């Protein structure tokens, strides 16, 4: 259950930058994974103006696959999250069949922070860049 919780919450992606030179190196597009390395997410720019953020479940470690989480492979956990600041997006995320609000913030070229709340339950996950697209 811990793996599926991390998998779903980690699908909430976004970005943040503190300097102009660093902002040039910051790119959310790529394949990202949580510290437990049980899943990977493909994050891309999307939308009419290509500034929104989309993320889908790209891969689940074979030994952690089950009927519940393999049905999520290839599905969007979020689509067209609007930019809410430099390297930061906020919008609706699908989590366990519920639509909730979440944030994605890029902390560095290789780190994303994803956070979301459902009622009183909140979670934060840090993702590491696995590869570029």
From TrEMBL:
Superkingdom per UniProt: Bacteria
Classification via PANTHER family: BLL6627 PROTEIN, BLR1215 PROTEIN
Organism listed in the record: Maritalea myrionectae
Stored Pfam families: DUF2147
Residues covered by the DUF2147 domain: 30-124
Protein name, per record: DUF2147 domain-containing protein
Claim: Transmembrane helix is one of the keywords in the record: no
Swiss-Prot/TrEMBL keywords: Signal
Family annotation (InterPro entries): DUF2147
Signal peptide: 1-23
């Amino acid at each position: 259950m811990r793996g599926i919780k991390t998998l779903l919450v980690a699908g909430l992606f976004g970005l943040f930058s503190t300097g102009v030179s660093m902002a040039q190196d910051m790119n959310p597009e790529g394949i990202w994974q949580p510290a437990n390395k049980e899943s990977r997410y493909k994050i891309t720019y999307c939308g009419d103006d290509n500034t929104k953020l989309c993320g889908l479940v790209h891969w689940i470690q074979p030994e952690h696959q089950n009927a519940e989480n393999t049905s999520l492979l290839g599905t969007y956990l979020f689509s067209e999250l609007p930019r809410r600041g430099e390297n930061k997006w906020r919008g609706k995320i699908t989590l366990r069949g519920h639509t909730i609000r979440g944030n994605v913030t890029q902390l560095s070229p290789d780190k994303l922070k994803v956070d979301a709340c459902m009622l009183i339950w909140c979670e934060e996950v840090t993702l590491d860049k696995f590869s570029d697209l």
